[in-house]
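Our preliminary data section would be incomplete without showing what the modeling component actually yields. Below, a chain of 204 amino acids is followed by its predicted structure, encoded as tokens that our downstream tools consume directly.
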Amino acid sequence: MTDFIEDPYIGTEFDEIFNDWYEIEGARKIKELSRQLRTFFNYKTEVIRYRFRTYPHLAENYINPKFFSRKQEIETLTHEFITLLKKLKNSTQTLEEGIRSLFFNNSKKPLNKLSEITEKLSIFIDYLSEENIHNYPRFLKFVVVLAKNICLVKKYLYVQFSEFYSELEINYHSLEGELDGLLEKIPDVKIEKPIKQLEERLTT
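Predicted structure:
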């Protein structure tokens, strides 16, 4: 019987491959987190632009077809998002416990569905952050509330980045409060009923 002799070069090669993969994956994660920070600052800028707008009457009654299509898509997807969260959060468990149970029970289908919808909404939120959304303050408020709740879910989905998403959630909450204060000063700017219902369902 021949004794097995470990080739030191194999171990070295494996370490190099692993380190290369780790660097690539790490760089990808850093890029993604940086993108989400940029998105937040874009919305922060939109709130500032709304605060210091030079014209009193905004273009809320006119929405270009492309923007309106995106708006409908994100609202439809948000309904699906809320439905999933309602199933996870109930009188016997918190949202965090509900999401963790998906991992513990190896419930791949609902977990993948939640991750998929969360990422799709994140892409929409990123896209809208560069679309002069301050012209539509009611919808801006809706998106900020949605972004805050996306951070809440990601905090539980990606525990290795929980502190990052926790801080980002706090920042969006602060931005929501700032926007609330601005909208209260203008009597004719009220939250549309469908959007208000979505906000209430997201925050309760």
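Residues 8-203 form one domain. The helical segments are 8-51, 65-88, 95-104, 108-128, 137-157, 162-184, 193-203. Preliminary results of this kind motivate Aim 1 of the renewal.
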